[in-house]
Amino acid sequence: MTAQPKFLKILNVVTVLFLAAAILMVFLYAPIEAVMGLVQKVFYFHVAAGWTGMLGFFVAFVAGIIYLITHKRIWDIVGLAGVEIGLVFMLICIITGSIWARPIWNTWWTWDPRLTTATIMELVYAAYLMLRQGIEDPDRRARFGAVYAILGFLSVPLTFFSIRIFRTIHPVVIGGSDPNATGSFDMTAKMLQTFMFSLVTFSILFVDVLWHRIRMGKFADQLEQLKMRLLA
Amino acid sequence: MDAPADTLTYMIAGYSVIFGIMAIYLVSLIVRWNNLRKDEELLKDLEKKN
């Protein structure tokens, strides 16, 4: 496998710089929330991780459609990369949400619509990896994976809109919260800037990690083809 | 006006999870890359012998 492209190296540096700046903004720039205290600072990366997770699943959805049209292996690799990264960031989102909920809702977990749909979404995509593990033939695996990624994506808008459709105690960050929501807060200008910067940072981080994961997938695919040639 | 709730430990726990999971994933990528490189060497050796 060839060395990292120059642009990827630049992107690595940019990602680290943005991440460092986002951390500084969260801890030094954004004010401490008047009621919740320091745990509210988890919110910036909690939402950003959720956003990144959904972005990963969206990439897998798009890659699945393109794979079914073109049958090019690269789109299977892109889809797998999207799901894997999406799972990692959605796991961060779910666990940090639980940690935030303990002092605010006085419980680690409740089967609220948002928490339930997010967990179902995580399990749906974990099953995607299991499905792939169970199929030997690469073309069949890619086809099944593409169809699954497209169908599985139904869980993403359901999760995203769950706090707007159902009665929920989960706060809505942008737009009005349900009157039953617990833990809502009005963002000050500094909080909003930090929040938006965190979203941008995690989006850049996503692109960087996705690129690395796709390169690794291509490398693994090359080796699998070489292995097949040697076995033939 | 009341002071904010003391939730420092929860914030530390939250950020430990965020950076912990990210670090584990990063390490997993590095380990898998290294394993693929070893596989590549092995397969190239086999290819030469054949």
SSE layout and pairing:
The complex is a heterodimer of chains A (232) and B (50).
Chain A: H1 6-29, H2 42-70, H3 73-105, H4 113-133, H5 138-152, H6 155-165, H7 189-231
Helix pairs in contact in A: 1-7, 2-3, 2-5, 2-7, 3-4, 3-5, 3-7, 4-5, 4-6
Chain B: H1 8-49
Structure description:
The complex is a heterodimer of chains A (232) and B (50). Chain A has helices at 6-29, 42-70, 73-105, 113-133, 138-152, 155-165, 189-231. Chain A has 232 residues and is mostly helical. In chain A, helix 2 crosses helix 5 (138-152). Chain A starts with 5 loop residues before the first helix and ends with a helix. By secondary structure, chain B is mainly alpha-helical. Helix content of chain B is 84%, strand content 0%. Chain B contains one helix and no strands. The longest helix of chain B is centred in the middle third of the chain and has 42 residues, at 8-49. Chain B starts with 7 loop residues before the first helix and ends with a helix. In chain B, 12% of the residues are buried. The chains are: A mainly alpha (232), B mainly alpha (50). Chains A and B meet through helix 2, helix 3 and helix 7 of A and helix 1 of B.
Describe the structure using short key phrases.
heterodimer, A: about 230 residues, mainly alpha, about 75% helix, about 0% strand, B: mainly alpha, 1 helix
The coarse overall form of chain A would be globular
Q: What would you report as the Rg of chain B, rounded to the nearest angstrom? A: 23 Å
Please count the helical segments of chain B: 1
Share of residues in strands of chain A: under 5%
Structural class of chain A: mainly alpha
Figure out the total of helices of chain A.
7
Strand content of chain B: under 5%
How many β-strand runs of chain A? 0
Task: Please state the overall shape of chain B, judged from the principal axes of the Cα atoms.
Answer: rod-shaped
In whole angstroms, how far apart are the ends of chain B? 80 Å
Order of helices and strands of chain B: H
Average of the residue pLDDT scores of chain B: 93
Tell me roughly what share of residues is in helical segments of chain A. over 70%
